[in-house]
Design a protein that fits this description.
The protein is built from 13 helices and 15 strands. Helix 1 packs across helix 7 and helix 4 packs parallel to helix 5. It has one domain: NAD(P)-binding Rossmann-like Domain (Rossmann fold, 3-Layer(aba) Sandwich). Helices cover 43% and strands 18% of the residues.
Length: 303
């Protein structure tokens, strides 16, 4: 463990709020950065300090607070690849340049990425050594951003790490109805609960590990989507949802090209490195992670 640090969480949203709570509880001085007043209010409600800034605005970047550790968890808001580039590559690069040029640069940077960078591996296992084969314009931007996070940071003497998240879920993101109502398309689900996504980032920082490295952050058990949907239905006391194959799903003429590529992407993500580093998952599988959602569903239907 390390002494209390000044931590700035850039793009302090779904994961950042949980990360800020965890690091604050551990005694660190955390500031969350959001663009909007509403976002800043959410940070303050979570129990730590907020700073309002637009990460695409150079003046706002110059005014960011000092930090020992930086976490770049900003989102492009689900927009197109060009919007993703503006945040994940350009804003990230500008942030690193700003902090790197200060009298006392940060010691660490953690950039939160996505397992979408792997592309399709036909259901086979992937880990940190697997070659990246992004299949969409947006995931190609993420690959570029990972390089910026590690190489640009190093040029300024900042140790940049990449936390590569699988599918995030948790409070407000269980998407229960999608799976118990269906139809559910075949394939694998690679997931990590919000508490563990944030917990893993906190662990990398507080245990001073994986400097300059990539760490895949996912739970212990990639699960077949059909089996997952059947488990959820049984736990919720409802009939199993209708199923469809990948080919059946691809007959939908309204699908975008990017959506088609995502549907055809299949892989199973390994967390062996995260485990080896010593992190213990709060929610090792979907069974523990979805328990609160299942219980909530039961209470809702009983009313």
């Amino acid at each position: 463990m390390v002494d209390p640090q000044r931590v700035v969480v850039l793009g302090c949203g779904y994961i950042g709020l949980e990360l800020g709570r965890q690091l604050t509880d551990a005694g660190h001085d955390v500031v969350g950065v959001r663009r909007s007043e509403t976002g800043c209010a959410a940070i303050e409600d979570a129990g730590f300090a907020a700073h309002q800034a637009d990460l695409t605005n150079p003046d706002d970047i110059a005014g960011l607070p000092e930090a020992d550790w930086l976490v770049f968890a900003a989102s492009s808001g689900g927009r197109d690849a060009e919007a993703a580039r503006e945040i994940y590559v350009e804003a990230l690069d500008n942030v690193i340049r700003e902090y790197g040029g200060r009298e006392s640069p940060p010691d660490r940077l953690v950039y939160t990425s996505s397992t979408g960078v792997y592309g399709d591996h036909d259901g086979e296992w992937v880990d940190e050594s697997t070659p990246l084969e992004p299949t969409t314009a947006k995931t190609r931007v993420l690959v570029e951003a990972e390089k910026v996070a590690r190489e640009r940071s190093a040029a300024y003497g900042i140790d940049g790490s990449v936390a590569r998240f699988s599918g995030l879920y948790g409070p407000d993101r269980y998407r229960l109805d999608r799976y118990i109502e269906g139809p559910v398309t075949e394939g694998y689900l690679n997931m990590v609960h919000r508490a563990d996504a944030a917990g893993a980032v906190a662990y990398l920082l507080t245990h001073d590990c994986a400097r300059g490295e990539v760490v895949l952050v996912t739970d212990d058990e990639p699960v077949d989507k059909w089996k997952f949907a059947d488990w959820l239905a049984a736990e919720c006391g409802v009939d199993s949802p209708p199923k469809r194959t990948t080919q059946q799903r691809l007959t939908d003429e309204g699908l975008s090209e990017a959506a088609r590529r995502r549907i055809q992407t299949s892989k199973r993500c390994s967390n062996e490195k995260l485990r080896t580093l010593g992190y213990t998952l709060q929610y090792p599988t979907f069974r523990e992670g979805y328990r609160a959602a299942v219980d909530s569903y039961g209470n809702r239907t009983a009313e």
